[in-house]
Protein 1
Amino acid sequence: MRQGLAATTLLLGLFGCTTLARAETLNLLIWEAYIDQAILDAWTASTGIAVRQIYFDSGDARDEILADPNSNIDLSVVGENGSALFGKRGILAPIGEDSVPSLKDYKTQWTARCGGYGAPYLWGTMGIVYRSDKVTTTPTSWKDLMQPAPALKKHIAMYDDHNEAFIAPLIMLGKSINANDSETLKLAFELMKAQAPSVLTYDYVITSIDNPDYGREIYMALAYSGDQKVLNEKMGTSGVWRYAVPQEGTLSWLDCLAVTASSPRKAQAMKLLDYILSAKSAALNAQTLGMPASSTAALALIPDTIKADPAIYTPEDILKKSQYQTELSVSSIQTRRRIISAMANFQ
């Protein structure tokens, strides 16, 4: 994505807030529009401790920030693989029910996936978002995105993260989304290259939709579940942006919320983490964002009508065909990044 620009912007912001952070302020590294502000406001009102959100727009950009020992981050949203990886490297602090009591409301199937260095935050799938006023037939296959109709030429937004960019082509090929071998990645590259003339941008749709030059020209995009709600809010188009999970299956992801090991405000950060994970906060957050909750106690507070919405709680038959991400080999990451860098030449 805009990895260089994003990382530079974030680091400048972080270094610029050093004085503020030494006061009663916690720095939270997070996707844009990924937490209900009312939760943070309530926390600040009750504790006097402010929370400063610092946005990233790709996993690669986030990882650069977390790997920087001077980044001044207290809490961060990380993927389940990143939680374990950064934890083993001493970047994230270990957590358990002793430090985060709200974890008692989360089943082991969720907590185990964060590897002991993060807490289950939100989960979902990857799929296709589309403007229903421009795309009148609901996408049902990854082919609708990778081999789009002629009318969608230069109206497609993809995503140049080295993991997510390969979800659609690899599933179309009937391969694992965690493929490491060069032959499989080469086949994926051929599909991506054929799609490239139809792609308007490789920037994450939540960010690119704000671009005044082409944001309103995006009709279909690779996206995460829940992104349709953010897009409608940004565009002022209630219900126009919709989300569909292709029938071939997809990525089933889990984001974890973690505390950095180097935070000088670790005790406060743990308390904020516990507050966000509490049943009331988790239920409010899930409903506000249009995302599924992973807390058993929070689920009991969410209306059945929401839990029955397939755009939020993906049907079991689709989930059975979905895959989890695992750690990729170094050579696979390098190959994937080279392919992404080459894509601009084929547009």
Protein 2
Amino acid sequence: MKAIDLVAPAGSLVALKAAVDKGANAVYLGLRNATNARNFGGLNFSDTDIRQGLAYAHGRGRQVLFAINTYPQAGAVAEWRAAIDTAASMGADAVILADPGLMAYARDRHPDLRLHLSVQGSATTLDAIELMREQFAIKRAVLPRVLTLAEIAKIIRQTTVEIEVFGFGSLCVMAEGRCLLSSYVTGDSPNNKGVCSPAHAVSWEEKEHTLYARLNGTLIDRYAPDEAAAYPTLCKGRFDVAGDVDYALEEPTSLNAIALLPQLINMGVAAIKIEGRQRSPSYVAQVVGTLRAALDAAQRDTERYSPRADWQTTLARHAEGAQVTQGAFERPWK
């Protein structure tokens, strides 16, 4: 049985080195421009950082994947094509793309460059994945976090494309990177602005012992003095629905799939991905180290594997709202 790759996020050179040191098989990163979906200040890689990161990873037998996963804007396609050229010239092990036009460019201009279909491409069916394979020779597809284990297994049985799934991190219940709720409220595309709640649209106001969190003026939540406040994300806000104030769409929580590793291994998943290029090097080090230990234990003996309590404690510490879920993998509400 082929070992599963552990794919880790890197928003900086320090985070990349932490991921490699803690056992990631591959690290994904972005350039300091609009070609990646985590484009904001203080994050991502200069050319010098990339060269150092590539040398560090390749010197230890690890891979570096370039996330060029946004959709080119009208009149600026050359910037996205230049990003692909940069990845190819620097020795990227793969590029992660969502836009078919960019895939065509990469296929024609750099035929030896390995292509991965980004989660931003929202490929949730066999037909979608096979179309990308037939047209652009993709080698791997990253699945959105909306499929059950049974649905993932069915896709794997019917395609030669490697399948990558998320194992830990923020949970998205929308069309990833193209959330219409966020676009409607902020006026910005999450795909092109680096995050679904851009900092310029976030505001906090404390009044009469209550903290109000707003997104572009829209009230997302309010917190009592002793209540932990979450970053205002529209899908994870509390709203008044027919007189009942609660999380109408989704609670602040993070995906944690370490209890499901034996199933993912047995069905033939090629890679487990950790979300969080916007997170700190400490987050990267602790989450990668925990997932590495869990994945190694599961691959040694899937029958006797059981996630350790200290692994769960570590992951919960880095989860939104200090809560974790298996998300759509099992869909207990069905």
Protein 3
Amino acid sequence: MTVDPSRSAGRMRASDADREAVVEHLREAAADGRIDMEELDTRLGQALSARTHGELAPLTEDLGPVVPAEPLVLKGGMHGATRSGRWKVPPVIRAHAGMGSVKLDFTLAECRLREVELEVHGDMGGISIVVPQGWTVRADELETAMGGLKNRTEGPGTPGSPVLRLTGSCGMGGVVVRHPNFRERRKLRDAE
């Protein structure tokens, strides 16, 4: 008995990342005018409840292939690196501090994802992460190493808000996760 690989692939379980990729593709198709809002709502509901690749495939087959987003890579090097202001959050981010620090500020970022994987390497400079109120930060898979983790966010986030999953190592510089401080909140109010 031979098994048709295309049929067995369709029965494979879909991951949250698979569903998110389809959701993002559908939203981009609606923004381009390839599908209307009513069709978007219908397809989004089907995508979010899909259990297998076979259930996901028909939702985008008339829209072209789903292209996975490239991970965002930040390297602190000697002088440090910052990502702040208005930017679109990809599903995967890799931050390597090096001698200089890395700061990731999600406060004004556009994030349509349920979950974002942030692989950190604190090295010598350390990593600072600023998340909006309501976000959930999970650091179960993070190696604290010498620098350790300082998570200054309060408990579970708001339902439906993004989950930031930290992996990697804190290194010597450590990793700090916090909400915007007073100065940053004032700057945000002034920008409105």
Protein 4
Amino acid sequence: MNTDFLQYYHRIRSKQKREALFWSLGLAVLYLGAGRVAEFSLYTVWTSIPHFFDYLAETLPNLHWQVLFANGSTKGSLAYWGYRLPIQLPLIWETIQLAFAATLFSTFAAVILAFLAAKNTHRLTSLRLAIRTLAAFFRTMPELAWAVMFVMAFGIGVIPGFLALALHTIGSLTKLFYESIETASNKPVRGLSACGATPLQIMRFGLWPQVKPVFLSYSFMRLEINFRQSTILGLVGAGGIGQELMTNIKLDRYDQVSMTLLLIIVVVSLLDYLSGELRKRVVEGKQ
């Protein structure tokens, strides 16, 4: 008995090793082939990466301990480094508002579309396929591409950024939401159907209590993503702190590049922490 088991075990292990070696070699060939087609060169990366650190070194502020807390007209002071804070702080607040507004609008729209796109909510196959196709189109186009098109249509400002974030978020959340609805338990649905409940009542009392925590969790996660994306959209003129970052880079204001990046990092960290705590309170019920 033990001998047969050992032989079976060694045979299976040998098969697993052969398959692992085969797939590893196949992936390595595909990786190298893709790099060759894309003209990716490790030598170029190795020789050019010091220039990246040189640029980072240029963005560091030239602070002096002797005048660190002097007024804004003194070079080497913190006040001199942050002389554009009266401009940058409102832009950071604008970016937060942009991300929050786009997420809130998209969440409401995605909830409605998800219930119409789920297989277990109704039998209108044509409507379900149309919504899924539309959602796939929205999320296939990256936010940056949407922003470029809307900037050309509406001009520079927050409207292109809002529309770009909203469309991509609707596409992403709709898919996540209707998949959550389809994996919900069918027992409450059958019970309500047996009692003569309408389709709307089944969605409200049979499915919504099951998927609400998942919807909230995905929405909080998307809020964090949208703030990061909104900083990138500003690079193409879609408003927010990203536009300030792009201006500083173009004008070679290296110290203000570092200040802008520092503000973005601080706000992203705070937003991650606050959304995580809020998610624990709302979704997990923690005090």
